Automatic annotation (TrEMBL):
Protein name: Oxidoreductase
MF term (GO), any: nucleotide binding
Alphabetical list of Pfam families matching this protein: GFO_IDH_MocA, GFO_IDH_MocA_C3
Lineage: Bacteria, Pseudomonadati, Pseudomonadota, Alphaproteobacteria, Hyphomicrobiales
InterPro entries to which the protein is assigned, alphabetical: Gfo/Idh/MocA-like_OxRdtase_N (IPR000683), Gfo/Idh/MocA_Oxidoreductases (IPR051450), GFO_IDH_MocA-like_dom (IPR055170), NAD(P)-bd_dom_sf (IPR036291)
Length: 351
């Protein structure tokens, strides 16, 4: 079977990471790169693939099987719809768009044309996530009652030399917390309401550096999330899961996500499963089992999934509409923090 031809639109850091992943894939091949900067041409030449300054030219001339959109968020709508109109399956990097209106337009166009759009929330492809989701579906936790998520890490000073990272929209809520929101939705269910407090007390930028969030899920469970990009801490999925070689290995197992239910509890990413072997009581001994799972590269799994979607053997794990719901719940955090009110994402469109 021939490999799926994938074009990458946007050759910044994320786009280049996708290019390297495609080159490792046995199901896809890198067909072309679109990047207006001169460095993009040099990079494409180094990989031996065609380069286009304008993505519209790439899509019109080449018509690849699929395209990865790794451009600034505000351009996602334009390029995603251009792909849809040409019948090209698109993988849009997260967030799906910079506004809910743009996200809704992408979702509507995808559904109307019957052309798949995937969103790059890669954690869904992690074997740890897949195993946790299957345990929950099998009833290992019973009815979910509560969850706690820790996302505390330290971004160095040079990270903020890029101006937009010091401005509203460039903080850890939209850059980092959106991954946690998507994981909560994927594992635990839809988010019914959001409360939040944010702070910029450490760095003093116009954007938050820390946040505390309380979610009520549709099933009644409560989820607390602690977020900070100014904490000298190991408690973040990126550091603890080992899914990216960009981060150093941890000296000891670290847990960042804690899910509790009426029949058991689960800690991630270690997949420690806690449960009673006899009567359920805090006076009784509780057992811990380590759930085995073979580790894998979620970025590579995402690319291989893209190939199967193109071939029609799988439906998207996260559709454009699903990505829109994750964006909506994440934007609700900012609105809840700004207003001091409880925000219901399902009653909001433009937050």
């Amino acid at each position: 079977m021939s490999r799926v031809a994938v074009a990458v639109i946007g050759a910044g850091a994320i786009g280049r990471a996708h290019c390297e992943t495609i080159r490792r894939s046995e199901s896809c091949r890198l067909a072309a790169i679109a990047e207006p900067a001169a460095a993009g041409k040099t990079y494409a030449e180094s990989l031996g693939v065609p380069w286009y300054a304008d993505a519209r030219d790439l899509l019109g001339i080449m018509k690849p099987d699929a395209a990865i959109i790794a451009t600034p968020n505000a351009t996602h709508r334009e390029f995603a719809i251009a792909c849809i109109e040409r019948g090209i399956v698109a993988l849009v990097e997260k967030p799906i768009a910079s506004t809910l209106a743009d996200a809704a337009a992408i979702a509507a166009a995808s559904e109307r044309a019957g052309v798949a759009v995937l969103v790059g929330h890669h954690r869904r492809h992690n074997p740890i996530t897949r195993r946790a989701r299957s345990l929950i579906a099998e009833g290992a936790l019973g009815r979910l009652t509560s969850a706690t998520v820790l996302a505390t890490f330290y971004k160095p000073a040079d990270y903020f030399e890029v101006a937009w990272r010091r401005e509203p929209g460039g903080g850890p809520v939209l850059i980092n917390l959106i991954h946690e929101i998507d994981l909560v939705r994927h594992l635990c269910g839809e988010i019914a309401s959001v409360q939040a407090v944010v702070s910029n007390a450490v760095r003093g930028f116009d954007v938050e550096d820390s946040a505390a969030i309380l979610l009520r899920l549709a099933g009644g469970a409560l989820v607390t999330l602690s977020l900070s990009d100014t904490a000298a801490s190991p408690w973040s999925w990126d550091l603890a899961s080992g899914e990216s070689l960009n981060y150093p290995p941890q000296p000891a197992a670290v847990q960042t996500h804690f899910l509790s239910g009426t029949e058991g509890a689960l800690a991630l990413p270690t997949l420690d499963y806690w449960h009673y072997s006899s009567a359920k009581s805090w006076f009784a001994p509780i057992s811990r089992d380590s759930v085995g799972v073979e580790r894998g590269d979620p970025y590579l799994a995402q690319i291989d999934h893209l190939a199967r979607v193109v071939r029609g053997s799988e439906a998207p794990l996260i559709t454009a509409r699903d990505g829109m719901l994750t964006l909506r719940a994440t934007m609700a955090v900012h609105k809840a923090a700004k207003t001091g009110q409880i925000v219901r994402p399902d009653q909001e469109m433009e937050l």
